[in-house]
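Quick log. Single chain, no ligands specified.
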Amino acid sequence: MDSKKVLVTGANGYIGSHVVKKMCDLGITVIATDINDNNIDERAIIIKSNIFDIKDGENLYEKYYQPDVCLHMAWLDGFVHNSPKHMEYLSAHYKFISNLIDNGLKQVAGMGTMHEIGFYEGTADENTATNPLSLYGISKNALRKALELKCKESNVIYQWLRCFYITGDDLKSNSIFGKILRAAEEGKTEFPFTSGVNQFDFIDVDELAYQLSISVMQDEVTGIINCCSGIPMSLGERVEQFINDNCLNMKLIYGAFPDRPGASKANLADPTKINIIKTNYEKKNVKDSLKRVRK
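-> predicted structure:
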């Protein structure tokens, strides 16, 4: 895993800011770009820009300092799954990445989502069929397919980093964990809940940032890569753990809301490919440490 210069789009976002920090911690050269930059680690090379504002004839590969890889995380309304912006900006995402590739980029990593899969019971791997049920999932899935085709035609390394159920830094998210924190701040001691029996693959945002970072620093494992824990846990169990970990005076009222119609009882992720990446990265770190000691 030789050192690479990584362009991170959406670097100021909920996940992007964690990824940039983690990359900087790992000693990776980061070119971070977003419309705003107030949450971006100052160790990165920061370019404040709107990636969709592309002028005729503009060379984005040169503009962003000739990165070795682009980790494309920028996305509007990520927490609003049926926002029309997902479809409106789909071609703009493709245009941005295509410009980079046409001008010299050799590796593309897009951040995906389990919402591309849609309803599915069991453990999903890279071969699991997709049937997205929201505009967010549909547009992400469409971009995935378009970039895969573009990269194949251009002989560019292609990775699609499919993220599962993200926890951590919850006040900045629109997840149930963020809602519980806000309810606690308002002085509430009870939280209406579903049955909580559905199982998911939860991953902490800091671990996710690590997985995303080391995935783009290698090119042996490519294609769809599940960024996940590989550990099934029921929603009720995970939320109860969250309440205990944060010492909240909060009681879940199970059954106050019905489970979402058609919701999968177990939507899990196969961690085989990410585990290979982690093992290879950790082995290399050990070898590098031994080399330094011998010197």
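The two ends are 20 Å apart (CA to CA).
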